[in-house]
Amino acid sequence: MKLLDITKEIGTATYGYPFEPYEVHEGFRGKPEYTYDKCIGCAACAIACPPNAINVTYDKNEDKLKWEFDCGRCIFCGRCEEVCPTNAIALSKEYEMAVKFNKNDLLTKGYLEVVKCKKCNKPFTTKRLVNYTIERLEAAGKTVTDKIIENLHTCPECKKQTAVEKFVKTSHFGGTK
Amino acid sequence: MSKKPTVIMPNDIIDANSVEEKLKLLKDIKRSFNVFRVDCGSCNGCEIEIFAAITPMWDPERFGFKLVASPRHADILLCTGPLTRQMYYPLLRAYKATPDPKVVVAVGACGCTGGIFHDSYCVWSGIDSTIPVDVWIPGCPPHPASIIYGLATALGILDQKLKETINNADDGTPPFIQEPVLGTVLFERDVYMEAKRLMGYLFGKKLYEKFINAVKSSKDPKNIEFTKFAVLKAIENEEDSRYAECMALLFNNVYLKFVKKEKKVTPEEIITLGEGND
Q1: Cβ under 8 Å to B: A residues 143-162
Q2: CATH of span B11-155
Q3: Would you list the domain boundaries of chain A?
Q4: pTM of the entire predicted model
Q5: Taking CA atoms, what residue in A is nearest to B151?
Q6: Is the N end or the C end of chain A the one with fewer CB atoms within 10 Å?
Q7: What does the alpha-carbon distance between residue A113 and residue A39 come to, in Å, rounded to a whole number?
Q8: pLDDT band per the 50, 70, 90 thresholds, residue B277
């Protein structure tokens, strides 16, 4: 009977979950929330992700950049949030993530339009990234000339090629310039 | 690397474990659910959370979950870990020993897809590579509430929240860039980088917002006296002393450099904290 009195004094310690909501503590790292409108497809998160839960690939059938997140593989480290330049991905407090029968429910996908290189016509980045770069340059007080825009629409491989060609034409290699 | 042995599941096990049979079991069962836990090479993080979930704090025996010591007594198999090669046959034996129909739950990132070990040579990456899985509980490790939620979803007490989302409406519009305070986004960039360096990415983000709001609240952000007054006010109102100190550092190290390009900073302009307290 003494034990019953003690329990009465202390009350119920058990959480009411799942019959009433449970609040996780401050700073809890739950499901990464993806804001599609903010994503520029720079793939920084895909490079930072330790278990490759985020994959950024070029989808040939759709002719678009595919951003894919597999919640089942995520280890909730928060590196994607750390590197995202536009805060498109941020860890939420969501912890109710279990799915049944269909594993595809764990996936989040986003398709982004690609830009093709002006010289070799290969896709290399997204439209959003190019436009974002131009807007940031303007906001930083730089005048965006046609040369800059053309540079932005050229893939790194072609840029390398043109730089080498220019260098070969200089007087060091017997060129005219 | 040797090839994974192909699992030949007897037909009677497959027939006895269809979705209809499982739903019938969940509906008609008139006793507690017995749970057997299989550790398939887990790091024991998930085990700790499972044991946290069966303590009186969470008490899953309210809705009839009991941990049992043998798969022959079990209805539900809780499988953790990325399924190492050594645990391949023991898992199959545990699966075959469980009476039909059985519910298999994969717990943790490793159990769902292999997690951080997904491309390792010594694992088969996920429980579903070998035996059919019904419920996946992601998390590394999952919170006890997540485990309770997963078990409750398996029983049909709660509904599943996540759905596959596919975003496919892009017209190339870049995300909105906020109006720069000092006329150039380079200031915001430098403040953000310095804030991250001072307090890390999580608190650095909050510090950045607090500092930018303080600068915005000044009458003229380009005027040092007004901005110093506004930042000092924000520092006074700040309850957390870490933010207060870092805001002063941001003002001294980033803001003053931006406003006074080459001229030297005079001592009157610098914010010093803790003066006269000791």
Answers
A1: none
A2: 3.40.50.12280
A3: 28-170
A4: 0.86
A5: A98
A6: N
A7: 12
A8: very low
Question: According to DSSP H, which parts of B38-99 are helical?
Answer: 45-53, 88-97
Q: Which residues contact B248 (CB under 8 A, 6 or more apart)?
A: B231, B235, B271, B272, B273
pLDDT over 70 percentage in chain A? 98
Radius of gyration of chain B (CA): 29
CA distance A64 to chain B (A): 9
| Cis, bond preceding B101 (omega within 30 deg of 0) | yes
Of the candidates B134, B223, B215, B149, which has an alpha carbon nearest to the alpha carbon of residue B178?
A: B215
The mean per-residue pLDDT over the stretch B246-271 comes to 83
List CB contacts (< 8 A) between A108 and chain B.
Answer: 164-165
| Span A28-170 CATH architecture | 2-Layer Sandwich (3.30)
Is B148 in Cβ contact with A17 (below 8 Å)?
Answer: yes
Chain A residue with CA closest to B110: the answer is A73
- Among A residues 19-58, those touching chain B with beta carbons less than 8 Å apart: 22, 24, 27-28, 31, 36-40, 50-52
Integer Cα distance of B36 and B105 in angstroms: 10
Helix residue ranges, H only, chain B = 11-16, 19-28, 45-53, 88-97, 108-113, 144-155, 185-217, 224-237, 241-250, 256-259
